[in-house]
Every structure is written in C-alpha cells, then in structure tokens.
Design a protein that fits this description.
CATH topology of one domain: Urease accessory protein UreF
Helix content: over 70%
Number of strands: 0
Order of helices and strands: HHHHHHHHHHHHHH
Distance between the termini: 136 Å
CATH class of one domain: Mainly Alpha
Strand content: under 5%
Structural class: mainly alpha
Number of helices: 14
CATH architecture of one domain: Orthogonal Bundle
Radius of gyration: 39 Å
Length: 313
C-alpha cells in the first residue's frame, strides 16, 4: 500500500504565519517591559540608597560631634530651666493657693448663698439640678459680678486710682441682693483682709485698704491683696471662681446630700463654665455688671425667714 502523504491545506500556511509574527511581537514587548521595570527599579533603589545614606549618617552621628550642634545635656538642662518657675512666680502661686484654699479661715463653709432654701423648696434635689443652679449663678449671677469686681479692683489698685477704688468698694457692698448675702460677702472680706495683714502684710496693702473708705466685700478684698503682692490677675480670677464654686458645691453636698465622688464630678462638669466666666470678667467693665438669677436672689431673701437652717445665708 503506497505511503500516504499529508498535504497541508491551502489556508494552513496563511493562518500560522501571522500567529508566529504576533508571538514574536508580544515577546519583544514583554522583554522591553521587563527591561524598563528593571531599569526603573534600579533607579528607585539607587535614589533611595543615595537619599538614605546621608540620613543614616546624620541619625547615627553622636550628639554634639557636629560643628554647630550642642550636646544633649545642654539641651536637656535648658528645657529644665524653661520649665522651672522664677522665685517671684513660685511665691505668687504659693500665696494664691493659700489664700483661696478651703483651709484659709474666712468662714466660707458657714454660707450657702441661698442654696439651703433652694433645697428646702425643691429646686435642687440631685446633682443635675445643683449643676444647673450653679451654672446660672456663675454665668449670670453672683459669680460673674464678683469676678468683675475683683478684676476692676485689681486694675484700680495697680493704677493707684484711690477714687476709683472707693467707688468700686462701695458699689460691690451695695450690689448684693439681700441682708444675708451682704453679711456673707462683707464678713468674708473682712476676715480675708485681717488674716492677709497678719500673715502677709506689706506697705502697699495698708494704703490700698485705706483708700476704699468703706466696708470691703470679699471679691474686692481678694483683688486688693493680690494686686499688693503682685500676683497675676488672670490666675487670681480663675482661683477665686474655683474657690467660690467649690464652696457652693460643698454646701449643696451637705444639703442634698451628695457623695464625695458626685461632688468632684460636679466640679469637673462646671470647669468650662468657670473658665468662660473668668474670660468674660477679664474683658468686662463696671458697665457690664448685672444679674439675671432672680430665683437665686429670692432664695437668699427667703432664707432669712427659713424655719430650720444649717447655714448663715
């Protein structure tokens, strides 16, 4: 049987040749991409190494070995010196913490600023209602007004304006809304002055007190003493409002009653109100004095006739 010869079909050669050409083109393109990627990667690597070497040399260089670099010990010592207070700053802080501490014997613990009647009347029954009451007293009542009196007293004392000092002292004494509130602010003011003169007296303080020519309210007394001793105004206003707020919370804690943890939570929650009130007082003038806490004013008036009382106001 003769051998069979397979002949390619006429269209087979036509189909295979374009495929071979296409594959060759694809291989060439792939080879070019790989070469480009290698070149790019190599370039990136070279650039990275070139950039990293100086950084590593700079990072690993020991401190103080450069021509213009300072030893680490010098930098650390300078930071410590910057963090330290000067002798006058330390003295001012010490006195401010002492004068407005609950242990400073001005008798603040015996006054409630009308809070006792508010508890009796049911206006204050728990921590939340006490917070609302005190927020109003700080922002729109006695807190703001007393802070303004302190600020204006301090500035008048620094400017040696005796006539203005006398006017501020008289206005602060007349600004309270009830007989008990007048007793509260003047008794604390008198005690503050007496103790400050006994333990922290200075010549300028006697002169400032004499210039007032009238009964000195508590915020006026704090302004006089802090100005006489050169204690900065802004910290004084913040510390004063903190002391007043703490005393109000202490009265409320005994009357509601509240636990120590709730009292501290309340003090923390009132922090932004205290800060905002201090900021307003520092930017205010005597023309900005005014109160909108009518219920608190009524409470201080009605407390005078309250049947059972733990506090003097």
């Amino acid at each position: 049987m003769p051998a069979m010869v397979t002949r390619p079909r006429p269209d087979m050669h036509m189909t295979t040749k374009p495929m071979i050409i296409r594959r060759m083109i694809m291989r060439a393109i792939l080879t070019m991409n790989i070469a480009t990627a290698i070149i790019t990667t190599t370039s990136i690597a070279v650039t990275t190494i070139t950039t990293a070497i100086p950084m590593l040399m700079k990072t690993n260089r020991p401190q103080g070995t450069g021509k213009h670099e300072r030893p680490a010990a010098d930098v650390l010592n300078e930071a410590h010196r910057a963090a330290e207070m000067s002798e006058s700053e330390a003295a001012a802080l010490y006195r401010l913490m002492t004068w407005l501490s609950p242990s400073f014997p001005v008798g603040a613990f015996s006054y409630s600023s009308g809070i006792e009647w508010a508890v009796e009347a049911g206006d204050i029954t728990k921590a939340a209602s006490l917070q609302h009451w005190l927020s109003s007293m700080l922002a729109d009542g006695a807190g703001l007004c007393d802070a303004i009196f302190l600020t204006q007293t301090y500035r008048a004392a620094l400017s040696n304006d005796n006539a203005l000092l006398a006017d501020i002292a008289e206005l602060a004494s007349a600004f309270v809304t009830s007989r008990e509130r007048h007793l509260e602010t003047t008794a604390q003011g008198r005690a503050f002055i007496e103790i400050a003169r006994a333990a922290w007296n200075c010549e300028s303080l006697d002169r400032l007190i004499a210039a007032c020519e009238t009964t000195i309210a508590y915020p006026v007394a704090v302004g006089l003493v802090s100005a006489a001793h050169g204690v900065p105004l802004a910290p004084t206003v913040h510390a004063f409002l903190h002391a007043v707020t703490s005393n109000w919370i202490s009265a409320g804690a005994r009357l509601v009653p509240l636990g120590q943890t709730d009292s501290q939570r309340l003090l923390a929650q009132l922090e932004p109100v205290v800060v905002a009130t201090a900021k307003r007082a520092l930017a205010a003038s005597l023309d900005d004095l005014g109160s909108a806490t009518f219920r608190a004013d009524l409470a201080s008036m009605r407390h005078e006739a309250q049947y059972t009382r733990l506090f003097r106001s």
